[in-house]
Design a protein that fits this description.
four-stranded mixed beta sheet; Nucleoside Triphosphate Pyrophosphohydrolase; binds iron/sulfur cluster; alpha+beta; Endonuclease III, domain 1
Length: 361
């Protein structure tokens, strides 16, 4: 039986079983209580690369500060980054901001419902377009993320090479998506199954509402499908961040434009090792402003993509007479309003405990 025939045979059974399960088992997430495309778009952007439990508070704060596309478009970029601070992958925040401005300019602030317009927005790839169009407008659009690749690979016992799995999953997802109505519920149900039952390492097949139609389970392949992507070997990096205090203020430097975490603020940080050209792209080997190191305040770990960072937090004393252009003295009590890197939050915790964490707690 071809995959297409199999999809046709399974389709109605899968849809019935999965949707019935989703209706009773879905998590109560705040963006599931709205059909506002703007609010759904923000949730989808935040949930990429970030756990849903973390997203809930960020999403509520973001929507409170920027309740509409127009409010987001009118904001300064540093305000948007400050609210994003701690979520990582800051490109997402910059893209949201740029897309909001484009929506105001071209669509009078109304989130577009035409697929070709949604797909033109900065940062909106096929997944996000499918999610917003299907969930907010119930358009018959498919979507594929890591959860969907995993679920479909198991349903159909597809052993695709990691490089081909996404393209295969898109084809199947398009065949399975209900039309003309019901795509939003279906897509969410598919992702929910992947997130809560059909998990990467140990799928809970005993609790699965579609176990009876799952080829991988029948063949005993659920633990090995889909094939994992080969992982990049981690690069070990050692950094030193300096906490320089003066009159209830601390010294911050802004990350350079165009690189990782561009425009965000951090404690002055240098890279101790490795000192090769590849690692030096993350942090400079020398500071722009001379700082003399003092007592060690602690050591913490941090990860940036495949870099495994050992971060030493040290007191420092500024030696220079004037500040470089992208350095500032910042009131400790105002730090939560600045767009800090995730690592800066860890430095704060090491140096001052929870009192001066970046988020409003
Ligand atoms: S039966 Fe198991 S492997 Fe198959 S979809 Fe359900 S949880 Fe995933």
């Amino acid at each position: 039986m071809s995959r297409t025939e199999l999809a046709a045979t399974k389709r109605s059974d899968l849809q019935r079983s999965l949707l019935a399960w989703y209706a009773g088992a879905k998590r109560d997430l705040p963006w599931r209580r709205t059909r506002d495309p703007y609010a759904i778009w923000i949730s989808e952007a935040m949930a990429q690369q970030t756990r849903v439990e973390v997203v809930v508070d960020y999403w509520a704060r973001f929507l409170e500060r920027f309740p509409t596309v127009s409010a987001l478009a009118a904001a300064r970029e540093d305000e948007v980054l400050a609210l994003w601070s701690g979520l990582g992958y800051y490109r997402r925040a910059r893209d949201l901001h740029a897309a909001a401005r484009l929506i105001v300019e071209r669509f009078a602030g109304q989130f577009p419902s035409a697929p070709e317009h949604v797909r033109e927005l900065p940062g909106v790839g096929p997944y996000t377009a499918g999610a917003v169009l299907s969930i907010a407008f119930d358009a018959p659009e498919a979507l594929v993320d890591g959860n969907v690749v995993r679920v479909l690979s198991r349903w159909f016992a597809k052993d695709a090479a990691p490089s081909a799995a996404q393209a295969w999953a898109w084809e199947v997802a398009r065949e399975l998506v209900p039309a003309p109505r019901g795509a939003g519920e279906w897509n969410q149900a598919l992702m929910e199954l992947g997130a809560t039952v059909c998990s990467p390492r140990v799928p809970d097949c005993a609790a699965c509402p579609v176990a009876h139609a799952c080829a991988a389970r029948e063949l005993g392949l659920q633990a090995v499908l889909p094939r994992p992507k080969p992982r990049k070997a981690p690069v070990e990096v050692e950094l030193v961040a300096f906490v320089v205090e003066r009159n209830s203020k601390v010294l911050l430097e802004q990350r350079p434009a165009g690189g990782r975490m561009a425009g965000l603020w951090q404690f002055p940080t240098v890279q101790k090792s490795p000192r090769g050209a590849r690692a030096a792209k993350l942090f400079p080997l020398e500071l722009e402003c001379e700082i003399r190191g003092g007592d060690e305040l602690g050591v913490t770990a941090h990860g940036i993509t495949h870099h495994r960072i050992r971060l030493v937090v040290q007191r420092g004393t500024m030696r220079a007479r004037s500040l470089p252009a992208h350095w500032r003295w910042v009131e400790l009590d105002a730090l939560h309003t600045w767009a800090l890197t995730g690592m800066a939050a860890k430095v704060l915790a090491q140096a001052f405990g929870r009192k001066h964490r970046r988020t409003r707690e």
